[in-house]
Amino acid sequence: MNKALISLGSNLGDSIATLKSALALLKNTSGIKIDKISSFYKTPPVGGVIQDDFINACALLDVAFNAHDLMQTLLNIEKEFKRERIIRWGPRTLDLDLIDFNGEISNDSFITLPHPRAYQRAFVLVPANEIAPDLLLGGKYSIQHYLKNLSENDIKGITKLNYAQ
After folding, report:
1. DSSP secondary structure letters along 141-165
2. Domains of the chain, with CATH numbers?
3. Is 95 a catalytic residue?
4. Contact (CB, 8 A) for 19 and 10
5. How do residues 78-96 score in pLDDT, each as one tens digit?
6. Which of 85, 103, 117, 122 lies in disulfide reach of 139, CB 3.0 to 4.6 Å?
7. Catalytic pick from 52, 85, 88, 92?
8. Among this protein's residues, is 88 annotated catalytic?
9. Residue 79 or 58, more confident
């Protein structure tokens, strides 16, 4: 089995219900086993687009197929939730990002691994640190390492949500 770290995010509609439904779809996908799911976090948007806060989480998956097939599966699930790519870093019903896949490095036209901005994003690193602090992004440095390198300003505004998953 391959080990994959994904991030999930939403800021349109009932984001918590959307993330729960997306996780249920992943759980019911042949060849995918969800190993761990982080708590859900309310996070401020990044990228300069004025929009509502996001609900974000991460999940650690055991996957029976390759990174390209997993990426296509994630894109298909986004489509089921009417994901539209209109404004870069804009609001979205569902965002599923492949952050790391077995520590592989890829720069092809379909997939970049590890995710090129994951090491800068508190909304990825905070939930990822909860479930996989020692995971090496791209086989290089751990989630914990990158999280320690973020400033307080990067992390402020992130709130762990308390509810039963």
Report:
1. EEHHHHHHTS-HHHHTT-EE--S--
2. 2-160 (3.30.70.560)
3. yes
4. yes
5. 888 775 666 666 678 899 9
6. 103
7. 92
8. no
9. 58
